[in-house]
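Hi R.,

Here's the chain you asked about this morning:
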Amino acid sequence: MVIAAAVLLALSLETSHAFAEALISRDRSPEIAASEDVYAKLLGVWSVEARDRTDNGTFQVTAGEWLFARTLEGRAVQDVWIAPTRANRRTAAPRANRYGSSVRTFDPQTRTWQVTWFNPVTGAFNVLQTRMDGDRIVQEGTVGDGGRIRWIFQEITDETFHWTGERQLPDGSWRLEAEFFGRRR
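And here is the predicted structure, written out as tokens:
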């Protein structure tokens, strides 16, 4: 029985390694120009302070971790966004419970990035389109009820970034729903 368990573990590790090798890419696809590689500065591992708006309008603060890597032959940038951190997963409040992934794929016809975010913990699933606004990466889409959302990476340096998540109100104004402050590990 112990030998069978060891064989299963070895096969599982081999499969995991093969999957990671097929998914993760070291370099950007040559089909994507350096000027179009808008997510390059985010590649790596980040510690994040997440601030989420609660129902009463205050903000709940949670420590998280955000990992970004090139994937799919360098034609995508994928992340894993975890809050609270893996070390603190048992203490999650439902509003701040994230263990999901975004896949940002480059469309060679439109020369733009599309973003798909999914969080199996909460069932969240969003599709957004990316555009640049100066140095800001602006991602816009809709949620299930048709409401518009806007996620912005801004103030990006080699060591930090500021992300904001907004929802459009019926009067057309935008309300901050969440903001994340990232610091490179």
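One quick note: The domain at 28-184 is CATH 2.40.128.20 (Lipocalin).

Cheers,
M.
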